[in-house]
Amino acid sequence: QALTFQAGANDRGGAIIACSRFVRMGLQVTILAAGGYLAIQDQITPGTMIAASIIMGRALAPVEMAVAQWRSFIAVRGAFNRINEIVDGHPEVPEAMELPAPLGKVSLKGVYITAPEQPSSNLIIQNVSLDFTPGTITGIVGPSGCGKSSLIRAIVGVWPVLRGSVRYDGANIQNWSPEKLGPHIGYMPQGVELFGGTVAQNICRFTESSSEEIINAAKKADVHDLILQLPDGYDTNIGVGGHALSGGQKQRIALARALYMSPKVIILDEPNSNLDAAGEKALTDAILEAKNSGATVIVVSHRPSLIANTDNIAVLHNGGLIKVGPREQILAELAGGKTSSNKPPIPANT
Q: pLDDT digit string (tens) for 243-254?
């Protein structure tokens, strides 16, 4: 049916263009005939006849062009109307009062999460309450698909919570301006995404920054020497998605981006999935250095090398929090298979 409508529109458009050309050619023939007759009668000169033909052609050219481009005009008008509908459907959010820089205390209270544009019945996270304090490393573990990455997205504000609250220093994340809160959060997602631009621009998040801050972040991630080996060093254009880099190089540059300007909250989602032994050691050193500087560090990982450096561990299963506590206690309970009477069994593969 769509093809039928398209064919009909093409036929009508072609007919209108053909008619406009017929009218133009007919007028040109008429002017030349009338001009020739008047020239024979010595009422005008042949030059006047040619000039009249040129003027008529110039006058009709915009009309023919408008007919030929009418379809594009209709498409632009439709796109403009659709954009207006979208903008009108999302009223401007009033500017929030600027809050002081966060110190790193993050708390979740009764958080329920569903994926954006999904029914509220499709819950991914259910009634999770957690507290993260500055100067600590908290590991979030659990089987695949239990909601770890979804919980991380809610903590950084990428996904809104369906119910409950995510608070930074006691203030609801919804009361923070993303532009003000963003620089204080270092986020490294599970699927690392770099942007078209130079290595330096990706590390400094495309903001105005000094070379010293960029190099400092790269050294914290132990990626400074690796960057210097690139064709243009920090000015190397890595292309859209960082296609010029390997998976491990992407992760280490993304780690430098997360550590840029020493944020108060550092959240890493499977940060060592593509790292070799040297890269994993650099990651561990960077996490410990951030902890010692007073930052709040949250790590999602299945590897013992990272979990061994955490202070606390939170265990998720089927979207719910089943255990949280000091590392030694949780690891001992997981190893022994202990569970509370009012909580579901801990999955063995955790």
A: 888 888 999 999
